[in-house]
Amino acid sequence: MTAVADAPQTEIEGVSSPRSVVVGIMAGVGVQIGVLLDANAPVSVMTEPLLKVVNSRLRELGEPPLEATGRGRWALCLVDGSPLRATQSLTEQEVYDGDRLWIRFIPDTEKRSQVIEHISTAVASNLSKRFASIDPVVAVQVGASMVAIGVVLASGVLGWWRWHHNTWLTTIFASVVAVLVLAVSLLLLMRAKTDPDRRVADIMLMSGLAPLAVAAAAAPPGPVGSPQAVLGFGVLSVAATLALRFTGRRLGIYTAIVTISVVATLAGLARMVAAAGAVTLFSSTVLASVLLYHAAPRCRDGWPGYGCRCFRPRPAGGSSRPVPTCPPRW
């Protein structure tokens, strides 16, 4: 940095006020560079330009330039290491010609924390620390789940409307929803290539069973009773069986749906034909469930179709649970 020193000017009081000073800047290892600085400018204004001049001079001398390490700031200091006040000038801090200064990097040791001004920012910050980020695959599954929940809720609203109103509108609307959802699920199944894609298609397919059952149950005219239950649960059991047959996945979910639907269909049929009471139907259902539950292991071991082409036992030493071997259509 080169400049021409102006002659000292005398103020009104008669005291001379220097405009510039020549100081020695210590930088690097055993290097002192003489520079001309403005005596009346704040130190903060001269720090960055001075750093550039000192680095260029160090490169000319073959010395390594000054570099920042971490978070902090550059400051002009006295020879004892105490930094000069950045808002005051050299004259105000009694730095005159011939004095030596030290330019060094002062690290920032203060710990900073994020300032949260809104509750939405706090919620987002805490959730990002507690849960992992969502990738596109998970986002698609979440979206499919939200659509499936909406379809099931819409089916429930249509069923509630049919309960209070004897109209064909429930059947029409539920049929339209079922056709759209099942068409979308079949399209996704045909285009699925990976397990996440098949999972999304299965979610849509299972949600499409709800409006289909509601449409079938709302078809018989008259007050809601056993005929509606027989037709609705019967169609649901058949649809779940076909979905399991063509996909070969979600064996536990579809088995539970088919089992409950068959039991409800038989109960509704007994109510419709034999006019059986609710207590009789409930007691018979519980008794049959308990008997089948206890007889399930023996029935499985002695079931004649256990060795069919769709199931095979596990190897010796492992579980005897049957494993499906038929490849799914989709």
UniProtKB/TrEMBL annotation:
Spans through the membrane: 137-161, 167-188, 200-219, 225-244, 251-270, 276-296
Cited InterPro entries: T7SS_EccD, YukD-like
Protein's UniProt name: Type VII secretion integral membrane protein EccD
Superkingdom of origin organism: Bacteria
Keywords per UniProt: Membrane, Transmembrane, Transmembrane helix
Keyword flag Transmembrane: yes
